[in-house]
Structure formats: C-alpha cells, structure tokens
Amino acid sequence: MKTRRQFIKISAISAGGLAVAGTAWSLLKDLSLKDELKPAWTKGEPNAHIPTYCEICFWKCAGWVHTDEEGRIQKIIGNDADPHCNGRLCPRVTGGVGMYYDEDRLRKPLIRTQERGKQVFKEASWDEALEYIAKKMKEIAAKHGPESIALFNHGSGGSYFGNLLKAFGSDSIAAPSFSQCRGPREVAFDATFGELVLSPERTDIRDSRCLVLIGSHLGENMHNGQVQEMSDAIDRGATIITVDPRFSTVASKSKYWLPIKPSTDIALLLAWIHEIIYNDWYDKPYVEKYTHGFEELKAHVKNYTPDWAYGITGIDPNVIYETAREMAKASPAVIVHPGRHVTWYGDDTQRSRAVAILNALLGSWGRRGGFYSPEKAHIEKYPVPEYPKPTKTWRDSFPGKFNLANEVVASAISEASIPSEENKFQFRGWIVYGTNLIFTLPDQRKTIKAIQNLDLLVVIDTMPMEITGWADVVLPECTYLERYDEIRVSPHREPYIALRAPAVEPAFDTKPAWWMAKGLAEKLGLGAYFPYNDIEEMLDWQLKKLGSSLNEMKKIGVKKLVRENDDLYFNGLDDIEFNTNTGKIELYSTAFEAEGFDPMPKYTAHETPPDGYFWLIYGRAPMHTFSRTANNPNLTDLMDENTVWVNPSVAKVYGLQNDQYVKLKNQDGIVSETSIKVRVTERIRFDSVYMVHGFGHRQKQMKRSYRRGASDSDLITKVLVDPIMGGTGMRGNFVTFVTGEE
Amino acid sequence: MRYAMAIDTKKCVGCSDCVVACQTENNVPIGYCRDWIVESTDGTYPQLELELRSERCNHCKNSPCVRCCPTGASHYEQGGIVMVDHEECIGCGACIASCPYDARYPHPDGYVDKCTFCQHRLLSGLKPACVSVCPTKCLYFGDLDDPNSDVSKILKKRKWKRLIPEAGTDPQLYFLI
After folding, report:
1. More confident residue, A23 or A64
2. Are the beta carbons of B50 and A247 separated by less than 8 Å?
3. Which one of A61, A220, A597, A699 is at 20 to 30 Å from A454 when CA atoms are compared?
4. Residues A697-716: tens digit of each pLDDT
5. Mean pLDDT of A446-454
6. Is the Cβ pair A682, B38 closer than 8 Å?
7. How far does B105 lie from chain A, in Å, by closest CA?
8. Out of A22-31, A187-196, A633-642, which region has the weakest mean confidence (pLDDT)?
9. When comparing pLDDT for A22 and A447, which is higher?
10. How many residue pairs from chains A and B have C-beta atoms closer than 8 A?
11. What CATH code is carried by the domain that includes residue B39?
C-alpha cells in the first residue's frame, strides 16, 4: 500500500516526474493506527526552554529544548545567537527529540555472560558494572601496562573517558574521524600552511565568489553553517564548481558539474595548477611573499596540461581551462574546499596537498572569501594532579610508520590489537565511546578479529549498536537532552561558548559520561582526577573564569567572547611566519621530503573495476548521521533505508528495475549481508554505483533499522592505507549485483 | 490580507527539515506529514537538471476541499488560510480525494489534517515553523496584499511557477525557478 510516507522520501522518483501519492480511501485504512504518544519517561520543568547544543553531528549547533505543559520534551529550535546555526537547525537537530523518545534505547548496564559476540548479557547495577571494568583494567595494567588500553571516541562525553585514560597512564585516545575521515586534509594543510582546517571548517563561504567542491556534497552533508553560507552564496550569484561522479544536490546548483572518473582527482588538480601557473593567473605578490618552492612546482606541473588530464579524468580540456579561469577571476575570494571525508584511495594526503597548493596559488588562505583565521575560547582546566607519563604509545606498535599523523590513528590501534610479527606492542583493552566501530572502521572481519583478541571491551552508547553486541560491558548513556557536558568552544570567526544543560532527568537507568568516568576513576583509586561532586560545580567554575556563570549561560545558551587577535584575514602585505619548516607556505613540502614522501603531489593510476563491476561510492543523506540516527523515530520517518543508485544503461544490461531489492557483491566475493533497493537514475555515472552510508543494521534490538537497506561497510574489504598518515582509503572497492534473492 | 508562500527551488537542498520541524511543532504523528519534499530530475547523463521542492497545502483561493466538505469542517479563515475544524470533521475523506495536490491526510484520531500555515504561530507574530527553521532560507512567507512582505518582494524579483494551475484552484504556493 502506498502511504503518505512516500511523499517525503526524496528518492526513486523517475525523470521529470512528480511523486505519486496514495490517495483517499486507501489511506483511510490507516485510521486504525494509534497515535504514537510521547512516553513520559522523565519530566523536566513545564513550558521551559533549556539550552543545549546538538550531539548528532560534530557541527554541534546550539538550540533550545522546549518542554510542554507536562514537562515532556516537545521540540528543539535553534539559538539565534549561535554562528553554527544562526537560529536555523538541520533536520537532525530538529529530529533530535527522537533520540530521547527512541524506545529501543539502552536502559541498564549490561555484563556479558557468554562468549563474546553471542550477545548474551545480564543486567547489572552501576556499581557492579564499574567494579567489573575496574578489576579488568587493573589486571591488564599489571600484566601489560596501562598503556595497552585505548579509547575510541566520537562525541562530547568522550573527553571524560579521555581524562580517565590519561590518569590511568595511557594516551592512546583515538577519534576514528581522523584516520577514517578528515585526517589526510589536516596533515596536508598542516604541511602546507602550518595550520589545520579544523571543525567547523574555516572556509569563508559567506564572502566567497567561487566555491570548488571535490566530492564534497554540501547540502547532503548538512554541515549547517556551511550549507547556510552556500545558500547565501547562491543568492549572491557566486560560481560553484562541483567535481563528482554523481550529480549531487550541489552539482545541480553549480555553474559547472565535472562528472569525473573516480580516483582521478589528482590529475584534474594538477591540470588546474598547471593552468593557474602557466597562464599567469596566480596571485603573484602573495606567492612571492609567502610561499616556498614555486619554481620547483612550476617545473613539476609542466606536462600536466588539460589535454593530459582529459585522457585520465574524462573532463573536457576546455572545461578544465574555463573552471581554472573562474577560480582565478574570483581570487582571492575563492575556496577550493578541503572536503571532510577524504579517505578515498590511499593517496589522499597528496590529493589534499594539491588542494592546499591550489588555494595557496590563488592566495585564498587567510583572505576574505577564502579561509579565515578562527579563534576559540580557552576554557581553563579544572585543577587536577599531573597525569602520569606513558612509557609506550600507539606509535610503538608499528615503529616508524605514520610519523606525520598529527592525531592517533584509530585503525592502527585496531590492527595493533591483533598479535602479529609486525606488531611490537599489543593493545589489550578498548573503551569505545559513541562510535559504532563495526561500521566505522573498514574491513569488519579485521575489526572483529581484533575484538576477539581483547581482554576487555567496554562500550558506552545510547543505542544498542552492533559494537555493543561484542562488548564485555555495555554502559548506557543518557542522551544529550538529559545531561550536562563540557562547554562547547569550537573555533569560529569570533570565539563563542555554548552550554548543554539537561531538559529532563535521565530516563531509565542511564547516566551521563562524566558520572561514569568519575565513578570508574574512584574505583581505580584515581578519584583525585575528578575533584568535583557534580559537573555543575566544574562548569560554573570554568564559566566564571570566562566572566560568565552557569546561571547566565542557562538563560542565554550561547555567548560571544572577544577575539584576542585582530587577524581574521591578512591583507597580503603583512609579514607572517607560517608554522612550517621554512616559515613559508610550502608548495614544496620539506616535511614530506624528510619523511621520504613526494614533496609535491603526483598522479598515480589506480585500479579500475573489472568487467561487470562498478566503483562503490558512498555518501550521506541530510537527515542522517551514519549509524547514530539510523533508528531515530523522527529521522527514519524521513528516510528509513538507503538505495543503490544505478545508471539506466547499467540497469538495462542487468535487468534491474526501480525498487527491486538486490544484494551487492564486491571484488573479493563478499556479498552484502542485507538487500538494498535499486534506484535507477541518470544522476550517476555508468561505471559507478552510489549508496548512503549508515544503513543495513543487524542489531535486532534496533527495530526500525533492523535489516533496512545495506551497509557499504560490508563491502569495503580492500583498504588503501595512506602511507603518510595511516588513513584508510575506502573507495577502491568494486561491486556487482546479486539478484534473485529476497 | 492574503497569505502566500514562495519556495526557492534554486536553494532548497531537500534536507526535509521543514518536514520534521512541522511534525514536532504541530504534533503530527510519526508516519504522517503536512509538508514533504519532491525531487524531480530532467535530462540524461551528463546533461541534467534537478528540482527540489518543499510542498504543502496550497491554501487555494478556489479550494475544492472546502466546496466538497459535507459538514463545513473545511473552511477559509483570515488571510485565506484553509482550515479543518477537527470537531466538525467526520473523516469521510471527500476533501482528500478532491485535492489535486494530495495535501491532506487522515489523522489517526479520526479527522482530516493538513498544513495550517502554522496559524497559531502567525497569531503570535511568528513565521510558520518550516519557514523559521529552513537552513537554506529557501522559504518566504507573508501577505501578498502587503507590498513589503518577504513573499511580495521575492515574487516581484524572481521568476516563478505554480503547480497544476490547470486545476483552476488558484493555488497560493509559488515556486521560484
């Protein structure tokens, strides 16, 4: 039966067509459906507005939680004073209420009673659960040293477990968002400009006249402030150039869409650099004053002409010339966007270097409409004893590898948990906070092998994600709507702080991360590192140091502080020393050269799909953040499964129809565990397929997401490791269709 | 006074925030909606065009749903807002069948429900929830009789179209193209 739900799915609508709705009488059958009332698990103050910042993605928009006349959570609206959202939220923040009302939430601490992965647990008290963890941690420390316990973290509460781990004696605190996502660009920009891109990105889209997106699908990734600024840029008539094998939403809003052959981006970037240099379109005074290695670069790109790139990328040489010209015309108010998820083909740091070099030539770094220089508030650390110095770190597992990684490589810790000849230092225990490693790390079999070798796996989450099924102890966290967390201090044009306060009491037997970490610390005899009775005490102390207070922040939610330096942009004449070896913007990277890597990016041909196989490209939908939202009732209502996008010419050959379910099989013969619906669309190249990441869950406890759609993580078994920083390139996998099942 | 809405298809990214904001603002039960996103693609690879539209009740001047309602539950209110009186509605569904835009749905509590332009918010000087929340600011709302309203100004400046004008209902949703 067609229901109105089909209205709101934005997929599977044929060319030129309108959504076809179920009409009248068939719909009335739905009258028997019961209104899903909001369960009053816990209550807060009635008709109140409580400040929060979102926990669904890293953008952390600040908003107000509204309670109804009974004190139940009603809705979340944006905080007008917050530059991350300007009072306008994205669907995930608005739908954040569903994270609280999800009836499939974790409710009680769980301790495993049978072998790992069988998912047989007993409910435990908090005391029992923390006691169990503390005992195991002490055993591991006694046998192998405290350094052999690692933390994987994604989210605000992770910092408390980070502090706990540091107090315990380990500094292996990894965010998969580095080696599985944004790491290559951070290392590349660091090598070029001596500074990181950061989050939110320092892109000055607001004032940009030309925005170049390479595989970055703004609008489908709802990085709120950036999408807002892009929308304003469209109003102002800025030129958008999108490079993507898929006709993404933003490609449809672009003056130029370059439907590039996957894996060939570096060739395009080199040709652009060639055009900018050899047509004398670069910012000469800027390049002369600030950069190192221009002549070397000029010689390096001599043969990388648009005609050369055409044969590789499939992009018309005239279009390469024209788009380079557009960038030059807008210079310095031009952004070649660094992207975010950039772990694609294993040469990602070099690709990001090409992006950074292009920006340097266009003089956009540090300039209005290019990249601004952000500032963030400095929150004073609550006084705690000095942390012990670990005698080993994650780097000791594989000595000499990934020296240029400027954060911990999560996948290397996973690898170092498997005993091997190469592995010099094995990890024995993991604490996993807010990240579903089974889907986050590529090559699930390897992750599970690592887990099976552990002496302890603790998982802290709000939902029974796949990773919880492998845990020894599961600690149920209350959602961000039920807790305080640290003050948000993310960098922006001006420094801002934002408060997250609980709108209601924690539901069930759930607790905030700070409470768990403090409780565990006390059991480990490390209570001195958490010298507060309640987090409110610490927040108030920290806020007072900044000239505010907890009371004030509860009323305003967001506060703008004053910039310490007047250097949002530089004017191109200032004397500036960059934090690189040469003190200049390094077009030629001395740091890379010293480590034995190419000082300037080169194009290397990558493997292409064998006959009958297609590049597997994955991405995001605006209403979901990976696994995290997959079971959220409000957000699954907007999108409850992913589809595999297939070009009509391919569909014809394989006899695929819209809405037909297929499985996908990769180059290693691995078949997706669940089936996925076909979407036949002109919006994808004939040599590629596309799917949204985060679906295909098999945790029965998550009823709305159970076996809905398929998981790209199933199919990413070939991992192209970036030798420079350990990033896990995931775009080198090819799939074909398996029909006739389901 | 004549309320109307303009939707900028050039800026809409189809994120569906308007849908979920409406649901949480108006207590629309999960599984139903008063507004929705339509995506339509034209052309063949690589010459393609994509239009994204946030759609809802068109608050038509000549509304078939008002004319066909046997109990008078569907009616016009100030500013031309088409409303349903939940008490009077018997859930017969005639209005659902008559609407060329499929803007109405049967609420599980037994009446027919649809977009109200967030009349309760308008009365306290606020914009409809979908307009207030939209991250791309692609929704414009206001009084067409007021030349200074957001919607009047944008309609003067930009090209627009209306959906299914041939149905003769004089719809009041304007899609900027």
Report:
1. A64
2. yes
3. A699
4. 999 999 999 999 999 999 99
5. 96
6. no
7. 7
8. A22-31
9. A447
10. 195
11. 3.30.70.20
For residue B46, the 8-state DSSP code is T
Identify the sign of the CA torsion A321, A327, A330, A331.
negative
Question: Identity (one letter) of the amino acid at B128?
Answer: P
* Predicted confidence (pLDDT) at residue A28 exceeds the cutoff of 50: no
Q: Which of A95, A622, A682 sits opposite B43 (nearest CB)?
A: A682
SS3 of A55, please?
coil
Average pLDDT value for residue range A472-490? 97
DSSP SS3 for A380: coil
Predicted structure pTM score: 0.94
From chain A, pick out residues whose CB is under 8 angstroms from the CB of B69: none
- pLDDT of the residue at A741: 56
- Measured between CA atoms, the residue of chain B closest to residue A230 is B136
Per-residue pLDDT tens digits for A104-155: 999 999 999 999 989 999 999 999 999 999 999 999 999 999 999 999 999 9
Contacts of A249 in chain B (CB under 8 A): 13-14, 50, 52
Q: What's residue A15's pLDDT?
A: 32
Measured between beta carbons, the chain B residues lying within 8 angstroms of A622 are 13-17
Residue of B8, B10, B16 to mutate, interface with A, max A Cβ within 10 Å: B16
Sequence length of chain A is: 742
Please provide the DSSP assignment of A252-298 as one string. GG-SEEE-PPTT-HHHHHHHHHHHHHHTT-S-HHHHHHHEE-HHHHH
Q: Cβ distance B111 to B91 under 8 Å?
A: yes
**Which residues in chain A touch residue B16, judged by CB atoms under 8 angstroms apart?**
8, 10, 91, 622-623, 638-639
Q: Compute the distance between CA of residue A219 and CA of residue A641 in angstroms, rounded to an integer.
A: 19
Mean pLDDT over all residues of chain A? Answer: 93
DSSP class of residue A550 equals H
**Beta-carbon count within 10 A of A45 CB:** 11
Interface of A with B in 585-644 (CB under 8 A): 622-623, 633-635, 637-639
Distance CA A55, CA A663 (A): 33
Identify the domain containing residue B21 by its residue range. 3-176
Q: Which sign does the torsion angle of CA B14, B17, B21, B24 carry? A: positive
CB contact under 8 A, B17 and A89: yes
Q: Answer whether B13 sits within 8 Å of A94, measured CB to CB.
A: no
Q: Does A65 touch chain B (CB under 8 A)?
A: no
pLDDT at A21 over 70: no
Interchain proximity A683–B91, CB inside 8 Å: no
Q: Which residue, A496, A501, A623, A511, is CA-closest to A53?
A: A501
Which portions of chain B are predicted below pLDDT 70? none
- The residue with greater pLDDT, A723 or A1, is A723
Q: How many residues does chain B have?
A: 177
- A13 pLDDT band, cuts 50/70/90, is very low
A14: confidence class by pLDDT, cuts 50, 70, 90 = very low
Contacts of A7 in chain B (CB under 8 A): 33, 36, 38, 102
A 675-714 residues with CB < 8 A to B = 681-686
Interface test with B, best of A1, A27, A80 (most B CBs within 10 A): A27
* Interface contact A2, partner B, CB < 8 A: no
Cα A266 to chain centroid, rounded: 23
Q: How many domains does chain B have?
A: 1
Enumerate the residues of chain A whose CB falls inside 8 A of the CB of residue B97.
23-25
**Enclosing H/E stretch for A168:** helix A158-168
At a CB cut-off of 8 Å and minimum separation 6, what does A724 contact? A184, A187, A349, A350, A402, A404, A405, A592, A595, A597
Interface contact flag, A30 B106, Cβ < 8 Å:
yes
ipTM at complex level:
0.95
